[in-house]
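Q: Hi! First time doing this. I have a protein sequence and I read that you can turn it into a structure. Is that right? Here it is:
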Amino acid sequence: KKKKKFYYETGRDKEFEQEYDALFTSQTTAFLDNASVDEMINPELMRVDTFRGDCDVGLDFGMVQSNTVITISTIVDGVSRLIYDYEYKGDDDTLLNDMIALKDRFNIQRVVADDCPEGHYMIQMLENEGFNVTRMNFRAEKIKKYMAMKQKIKKGEIQIYPQKELVAQLKSLQQIEKPSSTAIEKPSGGRDDYPDSLLLSLSHFLEDI
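A: Yes, that's right. Below is the predicted 3D structure, encoded as structure tokens:
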């Protein structure tokens, strides 16, 4: 109580509520420990510019404080491998033409996209161009998919090449346990475009869990 009185007297009531009251309503931990993320990295893998094996694209649309990110993953002997990534650092006006160009260089089976309002027009355009688009209701499926991804990571079944931004964002993901639900979120001021895009590219791979 003394601490609470001190915080409120010094105008730090919001800080107290976040630091202490929050302990009674939610618990925040790292979604993935650093060692698990580091073990995903296969130094023998690298980003490629063309690939003839079957692969899926994950397309996470940027919003106000995030960027549009494309990732491409393939399955080799039951293990998922990241083979391509691209981040739009600004507007993504060339996205449709870029995707058409990728279709010529990669044997894309499916494009898994976040079925959000920001992406509806682009998804329709991709379908018009002949892409097989899986619309993922990210809000409804996010937790289930991330938990499935975590199991695959623990089994060593998801590999990535060294990609600094992806690694940093994976390590910063937070798991927040609330009385009535679980949330997996980026930290305040952080980003999760890369993990979300990777998750989308792995969506069909995660269905067997």
